């Protein structure tokens, strides 16, 4: 992992582009107390000793109920942000793409934090993303999807 910015904690993370047969992407909405609501892809921090691939599979299962191999990494990014716990981090994000015909999202193991933040999932058509009134992360999600289309 690249050196983190001074005073920021390093945070390895696995993120998943979950795409259905209609080319929609699954995003989760979070409503923290300290900032406006935001939407992001499934995923989260890599546990100590865990590979990015194992973390992607675990996070996908915990957040969506899907237990599948997430395949190879399709992108890597390093980003600075403030976590919901108010910790400044430099995240080394590894991105995976999983394509499914369809899936009814049912979190297998939501964390206490996900429950507290009102985490809710929704499938987004690509044309909805650009005009959505709330923040969607990453900002270039449509480009990422297009780059990873098969």
Automatic annotation (TrEMBL):
Family in the record: Belongs to the Nudix hydrolase family.
Pfam families in the cross-refs: NUDIX (PF00293)
Keyword Hydrolase: yes
Protein name listed in UniProt: NUDIX domain-containing protein
Keywords for this protein: Hydrolase, Magnesium
Xref: InterPro entries: Nudix_hydrolase, NUDIX_hydrolase-like_dom_sf, NUDIX_hydrolase_CS, NUDIX_hydrolase_dom
CDD domains noted in UniProt: NUDIX_Hydrolase
Every Nudix hydrolase domain range: 9-146
Species this protein is from: Sphingomonas corticis
Reported cofactor(s): Mg(2+)
